Amino acid sequence: GEDVEQSLFLSVREGDSSVINCTYTDSSSTYLYWYKQEPGAGLQLLTYIFSNMDMKQDQRLTVLLNKKDKHLSLRIADTQTGDSAIYFCAESSSGGYQKVTFGTGTKLQVIP
Amino acid sequence: GAVVSQHPSRVICKSGTSVKIECRSLDFQATTMFWYRQFPKKSLMLMATSNEGSKATYEQGVEKDKFLINHASLTLSTLTVTSAHPEDSSFYICSARKGLSLTVNEQFFGPGTRLTVL
Questions:
Q1: Distance from CA of B38 to the nearest CA of A (A)
Q2: How far does the CA of residue A56 sit from the closest CA of chain B (Å)?
Q3: Phi and psi (nearest 5°) for A104?
Q4: Given A31, A35, A42, which is nearest B111 (Cβ)?
Q5: B104 to chain A: closest CA residue
Q6: What is the C-alpha separation between A65 and B80, in angstroms, rounded?
Q7: How far apart are CA A40 and CA B115, in angstroms?
Q8: A74, A112, B28, B73: which is deepest, by most CB within 10 A?
């Protein structure tokens, strides 16, 4: 079955860049997502990328996709304390009805 | 917007009782809703996909008679944990798909329900 893996924890200083990494196994993955979960809250979709892209930038967020290595990363520039949360990588195969498989989540701690 | 609510946010019950959790899409119609279970330091585990007006589709290993799902309207899905036991204690999260997109599977998540079974 599909498997999505992330490191559990990342700590950065305020103002630095954060890079959260993710690997996945399903070669048929078409959409790759990054979700953010703040304490006691549900998940919020931050951004997504199609598998035929290798980069997507949205303000402070940059997503890089290496399809050959099945590696996805999320870079947050100028990390702020409000960015402290758990970040989930997720993937789904083509078609909106395919289920989304989530990674284990990376807890980002931003030190003031 | 696309807001999803869950009720209750937290529930404590005795072993053997049943608990109902509601998931509502507040400002959009959701033909499909999803129920997840989240364990500490673990990923979200998809339990079932709930389609309005039809039976839910359960993931392998999830007991349909234990976790009853009813998607009676385009804005409401309920999950009932029947005869709850301490091992059912978990964080349950629902999500809803907006519209009938055939491309990206964007889901809007509720805030979750913390269930504790004593």
A1: 10
A2: 15
A3: -80, -15
A4: A42
A5: A96
A6: 39
A7: 13
A8: A74
Per-residue pLDDT of chain B (118 residues; tens, 9 = 90+): 688 999 999 999 999 999 999 999 998 888 889 999 988 777 889 999 988 888 899 999 999 999 999 988 889 999 999 999 999 999 999 999 876 655 566 788 999 999 999 9
Structure-block tokens of residue B83 = 């005869």
Nearest to B107 among A100, A101, A105 (CB): A100
> Contact B37/B90 with Cβ under 8 angstroms?
yes
- To the nearest 10°, the Cα dihedral for B89, A35, A98, B102? 140
> For residue A103, what is the nearest residue in chain B, using CA coordinates?
B43
Q: Which of A57, A107, A97, A41 is nearest to B106 (CA)?
A: A97
Identify which of B93, B72, B83, B81 has the alpha carbon closest to the alpha carbon of residue B9.
B93
The token pair at A18 is: 């954060």
